[in-house]
Design a protein that fits this description.
By secondary structure, the protein is α+β, with helices and mostly antiparallel strands. The chain has helices at about 1-5, 20-30, 50-60, 75-80, 85-95, 100-110, 135-145, 145-150, 160-165, 170-175, and strands spanning about 35-40, 65-70, 115-120, 125-130, 150-160, 180, 190-195. The protein folds into two domains: about 1-110, Rossmann fold, CATH 3.40.50.300; about 115-195, Roll (Ubiquitin-like (UB roll)), CATH 3.10.20.
Length: about 200
């Protein structure tokens, strides 16, 4: 490993044992050990498949365990100006894209940083909260307020797909799809949660 570092190789490109990673690499806080994403801004004609420049970037980082994302920022600006969902969809289909680059960028960044989203829903607002993948229900509650984590009792959880399918909390309850989870529950991406706590 030290030889690799001395030859200016990125830490991401080196094979390092878990023991060395914990004992040597982490304490040094090397910038080349941080997760990285390369975003290539291309013209409209290269938005779907990239171009020679993108190929060179991909070739130069193949050993880094890094993600390369291709975006046509000019197109993204045009998409952002369209207010109607159907118009956006047609615009994307016309140029051969399945989705806008902003969504891809956000999902890639979340994946890279080992993050996920859960939701809280009230009568007046819906809020999205970000937690690390593997967070427990009390840890997720703590993102809202530390008192929620310390006084956590339980969480009522609705799966996002169930909410889309049934359309309302009442129908989800009637179908028996609302679960009551304790302190050991591991939050899933897209969970809709209501916390019970005691301060």
């Amino acid at each position: 490993m030290i030889i690799g570092l001395e030859t200016s190789k990125s830490v991401r490109a080196l094979e390092i044992s878990e023991e060395d990673r914990e004992d040597i690499v982490k304490p040094m806080q090397l910038i080349t050990d941080k997760p990285v994403m390369y975003v290539c801004n291309v013209d409209e004609g290269s938005a779907v498949n990239g171009n020679a420049h993108v190929d060179r970037v991909m070739a130069s980082v193949t050993d880094e365990d890094a993600e390369v994302l291709v975006l046509a920022v000019g197109i993204e600006a045009d998409i952002a100006e369209l207010e109607d969902y159907e118009e956006r969809k047609l615009f994307l289909e016309d140029i051969g894209l399945e989705e806008a680059g902003a969504g891809k960028l956000i999902r890639s960044a979340y994946r890279l940083l080992n993050q996920q989203t859960y939701f809280t829903v009230g009568k007046k607002e819906v809020r999205a909260w970000t937690v690390k993948v593997g967070a427990t229900a009390p840890q997720a509650a703590g993102v809202i307020h530390s008192d929620f984590e310390h006084g956590f009792i339980r969480a009522e959880v609705i799966k996002f797909d169930d909410f889309v399918h049934f359309g309302s909390e009442a129908k989800i309850r009637d179908a028996g799809k609302l679960s009551v989870e304790g302190k050991e529950y591991i939050v899933k991406d897209g969970d809709i949660m209501n916390f019970r706590f005691n301060v």
